[in-house]
Description:
Elements: H1 13-26, H2 31-38, H3 42-52, H4 72-82, H5 95-123
Helix pairs in contact: 1-2, 1-3, 2-3, 4-5
Amino acid sequence: xxxxxxxxxxxxxxxxxxxxxxxxxxxxxxxxxxxxxxxxxxxxxxxxxxxxxxxxxxxxxxxxxxxxxxxxxxxxxxxxxxxxxxxxxxxxxxxxxxxxxxxxxxxxxxxxxxxxxxxxxxxx
Length: 124
């Protein structure tokens, strides 16, 4: 029963000294090499370095910058002013798709205006 309470040591003091000294030399890029040298998985080595208080996490990549420009709601309001149907169903569409529909609607309005202009000039 006394054997069941004995804790198994995964890293000897020499192994800990080795991985700490290698980490100080190689940094985060050398974790694969350190893990191979001590015969442990990278996650295990990283966890041990964290417990030893020497691991410094790599900085995270910056978030993608949001493109400036009109919001989807602004685009839908613009489209609603051009067309005679409810645009709420287009809320799931991408901004690019809504912009394409706006361009199509604007060209249709421009074409309709161009078609009516000659008639007005002839009537006078």
